[in-house]
Structure formats: C-alpha cells, structure tokens
Amino acid sequence: MSDGSNAGLAPEMPTPVLTFFNNKGGVGKTSLVFHLAWMLSEMGKRVVTIDLDHQANLTSAFLPEETLEELWGAQEPFPQADTIFRCVQPLTKAGDILPPVTRQITPRLFLVPGDPSLAGFEDDLASAWHAAMSSNLYRPFRFLTAFWQIAQLAAQAHQADLILADVGPNLGAINRSALIGSDHVVIPLDASLFSLQGLRKLGPTLTTWREEWRKRADNWEAPEFPLPSGSMSPTGYVVMRHTTLLSRPVSPYKKWADQIPAIYRESVLGQPGMAPTLDQDTHCLAQLKHYRSLIPMSQEVRKPIFHLNSADGAIGSHSQAVQDAWQDFKALATTIADRIHLDTVGDS
User: Fold this and answer.
1) I want to staple 160 with a disulfide (CB 3.0 to 4.6 A). Which of 96, 155, 240, 282 is the partner?
2) CB contact at 8 A, 239 and 257
C-alpha cells in the first residue's frame, strides 16, 4: 500500500490513461477492466487501476467486503486519502488534491479505490466546467483535472506503465472529467438495439467533450500545473457477447452485431459510408465468448476467470473454459497494447 507521501503535481511525462466507456450499462465494462488489468500485469506491465464510478463495482471486484466496510465506513475526519473521493474532497473545502493511498493487488497491479460518496462531486465538476471559461482559472482546472492528477500521482508512485480507468454508464460531469484525462478510449458493447442506440449518442459526445476541453485549455495561456491533452483517442470496441439479456426475447446476435462497424465509424470516427462486417472490422478488438457460468465464481473469490481452479469450482467443462478465457484475454490485451503502442514484456 502506498503511504501517500509523494504529494505534488502530476509529472511532465505522464503515464498513458486508457478508459473503458459506454453510456449504456450492462455491457460487462467493469469485468473487462478487471480482467485486462490482471492480464496486462501478468504480461509484465505495471498497471494502476482507478475506479471513477460511484457504484464502485471495480473496487468491489478487487477487495473483500471487510476491506470495503473499512474504507467506506470511516467517519470524518478521514485518516487518509484511501479512496478517490477522499483525494478530491479537500477541493470542495478550499483545499487541494491529496495524493492517493493505493491498494496493492499483486506486485505489478495497484488500485485507487472507488467510493459511493464520489456522486456528490458531480455538481462541483459541472460548475468548474463553466468557470474554466472565465478569468480565474486555477481552481476550476484543479477540479476538472483532479482525476487525472490523482491517477498520475499513483502511477508515479508505482512506476506504472499504464493507467486503466473504469467509469459509470452515463454522460455526466464526472465522466466528462474522467474522459478529458484519457489518452485512449475502448468502448465495450453488446449486440443489442440498446447498445447501438447508446453508441450513436456516445460518439458525438466524445467529439464535443474533446472540442470543449481544447477551448478551455486554450483559455489558460500559461497553466500553473500540467494539464491532460484530452485526446480521448478511440482505440476500438469490444463486443461482450456474454451479457446478452436472457430475460426477454432478443433478435439474433448477428442482426445487431453486423450494424456495429458502420455505426462505430459514423458516430465515433466521423467516417460515414460502407463498412465491413464485424468479423472483418479492424476496429473490433475482440468478440468475447460467453463466460456466464464462470463470472459468479470469479466474483466470489475475487480472481479473474482465467485463474479459477478446481478448488473454486472450475471443474469439467469449466476447466476448458478457464483455459479459453486465458487465451481470449491474452489476445485482447496484446491487441490493445499494440494499438496504444505499449510494449509488452511477455509472460511472468
């Protein structure tokens, strides 16, 4: 666990931030972040994960319930900045960002824990967004870049190669601030009408946030601390087949899946016109298989599904599925690392 002694500003050479974002829930986003963080760390990368969803599901995936009770049950004054909310809370009281006290998951994997109280920071960020076009800019920009600054401090403390961020399924001010601190964006999808409708809205929103952040950054001619680029570069999308809803009749997978490439190109990349099929689309990073029966086991023992063993209940056909999951997530991690120019070291 980091002791938070590395107080200061984000480094001039920041660690890249990869955010997994979709304004539609139920597409397996948090599970994707959890498994890729594990896989990338086992491929030799030092990884910091940051939970920016006030539901804190990523934190729950990593930490046992007794630790969550310890984290979220403390009363003010808090003993240390051991959640994302406690890192930003001083900003709301005329203070400044506190460096995060991280949780070490493995020797190369670290977590900045989430916090249900983060929901209360939404209004502050909305106000700061408007104030960033005024003349008094230091405080608004401290608010707007707080998540990025905290993530960079955590990465600096642990010499991380990559920061993975999980955010909530909405287009609110918290997610906007998370995205302006993102270098790369991966969009998890499922093949459904609801997911496609969300994708149509998500693309233009990213474009607007990128443009509006640039206006604000340009408005501060001589920044007093490093600012994120706000590039939000689309890395591609992942189709999460295992989240297909079973409680209602759904059209065949192929009907919706075949529409994804064209909608992604038009809405996210601004490239309308003909598009390849899903199987041929280079923007599709992966179509993950169904691991529905393994996910409850994974959640119970707080391990990735590719680490489940017979003691966890992964026997018979589950044992083969565990091996398949290893190959699937390794291939996906390798593809993402290649797309964002992150060299992988190889298996540990």
Assistant:
1) 155
2) yes
Give the residue among 208, 42, 215 at the shortest CA–CA distance from 130.
215
Q: Which residues contact 107 (CB under 8 A, 6 or more apart)?
A: none
d(CA 217, CA 152): 18
Q: Which portions of the chain are predicted below pLDDT 70?
A: 1-12, 25-27, 242-252, 344-348
Polymer length in residues for the chain: 348
Q: Is 188 helix (H, G, I), strand (E, B) or coil?
A: strand
Q: What was the pLDDT predicted at 346?
A: 47
Q: pLDDT value at position 199?
A: 92
Token pair listed for 201? 């809205």
DSSP designation for 92 = G
Q: Quick check: 107 and 137 in contact, CB under 8 A?
A: no
Note whether 23 and 202 are within 8 A (CB).
yes
Inter-CA distances, 72 with 56, 59, 113, 211, Å: 11, 11, 10, 36
Residue 303 identity (one-letter amino acid):
K
Confidence at residue 316, expressed as pLDDT on a 0 to 100 scale: 78
**Contact indicator for 191, 136 with CB cutoff of 8 Å:** no
Report the C-alpha gap between 35 and 27 in whole angstroms: 14
Between CA 147 and CA 181 the distance in angstroms is 7
